[in-house]
């Protein structure tokens, strides 16, 4: 069957009616609202992979690029994820640490957009998380030269098998090229879908005195 690339999607419609977000009901610190929303989605909307987030970076070629990674921890300092420092995203962050994170939880009809700066996590914290990972994930992090060209999948599987033999019965050390990032937010926007496209948007911006200023944005 041939599927035409010329598809009209103008009739795709969805009505959003699962909640509301009023400025007077929001806390002064957006991290409190993030914690609340994350808990609600994680508890009541099992179809969503709650900690899956899109991270956007500006690549060495000057183009923005988005990809999905997994949030592994959040605190009042910011948002933590782990990756290969030598990957495309790692190289992009090294050149320009300004990034954007976004969560879209379709079950709850909610979206969060976070602008911030990324910095490498302390080595002991990266060590601790690496040690908590399954052995297969530890070995996979070493075997994959992330974002580089690879001959075929067989090569990856061979490299992994060789590492399994090399580290059989041994502790697997965290490689220097793999670890965590902390994204410190400077702005956070919360979006709640509403009927007739009159969505609720509450935007928090960090000011020069490190206080959060919040406003309602027009949809």
TrEMBL record:
Q: Entry's PROSITE patterns?
A: PYRIDOX_OXIDASE (PS01064)
* Sequence positions that bind substrate: 13-16, 72, 129, 133, 137, 197-199
Kind of enzyme, top EC level? oxidoreductase
Looking at the record, the residues that make up the Pyridoxamine 5'-phosphate oxidase N-terminal domain are 49-162
Protein keywords: Flavoprotein, FMN, Oxidoreductase, Pyridoxine biosynthesis
Name what cofactor the protein needs. Answer: FMN
Give the co-factor note.
Binds 1 FMN per subunit.
Name the Enzyme Commission number(s) assigned to this protein: 1.4.3.5
A Pfam family per the record: PNP_phzG_C
Q: Which GO terms describe its biological process?
A: pyridoxine biosynthetic process
Query: What sequence ranges are listed for the domain Pyridoxine 5'-phosphate oxidase dimerisation C-terminal?
Result: 178-219
Q: Could you say which residues bind FMN here?
A: 67-72, 82-83, 89, 111, 146-147, 191, 201
Question: Pathway listed for it?
Answer: Cofactor metabolism; pyridoxal 5'-phosphate salvage; pyridoxal 5'-phosphate from pyridoxamine 5'-phosphate: step 1/1; Cofactor metabolism; pyridoxal 5'-phosphate salvage; pyridoxal 5'-phosphate from pyridoxine 5'-phosphate: step 1/1
- Listed NCBIfam families: pdxH, PRK05679.1
Q: Which PANTHER family match?
A: PYRIDOXINE-5'-PHOSPHATE OXIDASE, PYRIDOXINE-5-PHOSPHATE OXIDASE
Supply the name of the protein.
Pyridoxine/pyridoxamine 5'-phosphate oxidase
């Amino acid at each position: 069957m041939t599927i035409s690339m010329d598809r009209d999607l103008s009739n795709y419609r969805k009505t959003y009616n699962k909640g509301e977000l009023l400025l007077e009901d929001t806390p002064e610190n957006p991290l409190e609202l993030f914690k609340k929303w994350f808990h609600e989605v994680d508890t009541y909307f099992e179809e969503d992979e709650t900690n899956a987030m899109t991270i956007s970076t500006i690549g060495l070629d000057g183009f923005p690029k988005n990809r999905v990674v997994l949030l592994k921890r959040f605190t009042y300092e910011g948002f933590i994820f782990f990756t290969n420092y030598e990957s495309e995203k790692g190289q992009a962050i090294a050149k320009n640490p300004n990034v954007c994170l976004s969560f879209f939880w379709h079950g709850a009809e909610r979206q969060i957009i976070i602008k911030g700066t990324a910095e490498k996590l302390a080595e002991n914290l990266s060590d601790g998380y690496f040690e908590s990972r399954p052995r297969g994930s530890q070995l996979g992090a070493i075997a994959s030269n992330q974002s580089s060209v690879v001959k075929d999948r067989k090569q990856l599987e061979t490299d992994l098998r060789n590492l399994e033999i090399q580290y059989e019965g041994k502790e697997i050390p965290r490689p220097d090229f793999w670890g965590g990032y902390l994204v410190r937010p400077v702005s956070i926007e919360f979006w709640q879908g509403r009927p007739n496209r009159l969505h609720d948007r509450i935007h928090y911006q960090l000011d020069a005195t490190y206080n959060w200023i919040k406003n309602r944005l027009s949809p």
